[in-house]
Amino acid sequence: MKLLLLTALMAVSSVALTAQEYGLASFYSDTYQGKPTAYGETYDKNKMTAAHKRHPLGTMLRVTREDNGKSVVVRVNDKGPFLPGRIVELSSAAAAKIDLLRDGVTRVRVEVVRQGESRSAESTPPAPSAAQEEPSRPTPPPQAAASERAEPTPPTPTPETRPAPSRPAPPKPENKSHYGLYKIAAAKESFTGYGVQVASMKDYLSVLRKVTELEKRYFDNIYLSVERGPGRPLYKVLLGPFSSQEQADRYAQNMREKYQINGFVIQPESVSEADAPPASAAEGAGLYGIYKLSAAKKDLSGYGVQVASLKDYANVLRQVGRLDRKYFDNIYLGVLPGADSPVYKVVLAPFPSKEQAARYVENMQEKYQIQGFVLDLATLTQATP
Question: Domain check: are 277 and 369 in the same one?
Answer without folding.
Answer: yes
